[in-house]
């Protein structure tokens, strides 16, 4: 029952990220066995579509993966990805992942519009130079963490 609950939690997070991407005109890519190799990823995130929200292979986030300049937390596995958004899963606890993103957006030149951080979850809304991003960090099924990053044009 516990494994089934864990799988449902990750699937729900992936669905939420996919729906958010679809609402923004994005498309989702299938995530399943072999879709991502996790922490040992070679930085092969989909770069299809040269929109401002496309994944990049810059120097941020350990493996260099990011969406619109917001780095992917490492270690993490890509659950789903579309233009301008990504859902990641990490074995690390919420407080550790949250601290990473608070630090990353500060160093990345983002201005924090809103921030809510607890020991159980984190929500950041940030902006810079015509770009906005929402970052959500929440408990995953079991002991892991689900990270959702959505980006959008911002005045």
Task: Provide structural commentary.
With 155 residues, this protein is α+β, with helices and mostly antiparallel strands. It has a single domain, classed as TATA-Binding Protein (2-Layer Sandwich), CATH 3.30.310. It contains 2 helices and 9 strands, in the order H-E-E-E-E-E-H-E-E-E-E. It has helices at residues 2-23, 94-107; strands at residues 55-57, 65-67, 70-71, 77-82, 85-90, 111-117, 122-128, 131-139, 145-153. The strands form 2 sheets. A 6-stranded antiparallel beta sheet has the order 4-5-9-8-7-6. A 3-stranded antiparallel beta sheet has the order 1-2-3. A hairpin with a 2-residue loop joins strand 4 and strand 5 (85-90). The radius of gyration is 14 Å and the shape is globular. 39% of the residues are buried. Mean pLDDT is 72; it is low at 1-62.
What is the overall pLDDT average? Answer: 72
Q: What pattern of helices and strands is seen along the backbone?
A: HEEEEEHEEEE
Low-confidence parts: 1-62
Count of spatially separate domains: 1
Q: Order of strands in the sheet with the most strands?
A: 4-5-9-8-7-6
Structural classification: alpha+beta
């Amino acid at each position: 029952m516990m494994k089934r609950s864990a799988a449902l939690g990750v699937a729900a997070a992936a669905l939420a990220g996919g729906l958010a991407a679809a609402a923004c005109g994005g498309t989702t890519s299938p995530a399943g066995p072999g879709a991502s190799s996790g922490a040992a990823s070679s930085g092969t995130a989909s770069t299809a579509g040269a929109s401002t929200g496309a994944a990049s292979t810059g120097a941020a986030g350990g493996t260099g993966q990011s969406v619109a300049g917001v780095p992917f937390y490492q270690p993490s596995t890509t659950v789903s990805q579309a233009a301008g958004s990504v859902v990641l899963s990490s074995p690390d606890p919420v407080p550790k992942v949250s601290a990473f993103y608070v630090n990353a957006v500060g160093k990345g030149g983002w201005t924090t519009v809103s921030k809510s951080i607890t020991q159980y979850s984190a929500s950041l809304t940030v902006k810079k130079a015509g770009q906005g991003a929402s970052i959500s960090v929440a408990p995953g099924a079991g002991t892991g963490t689900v990270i959702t990053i959505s980006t959008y044009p911002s005045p």
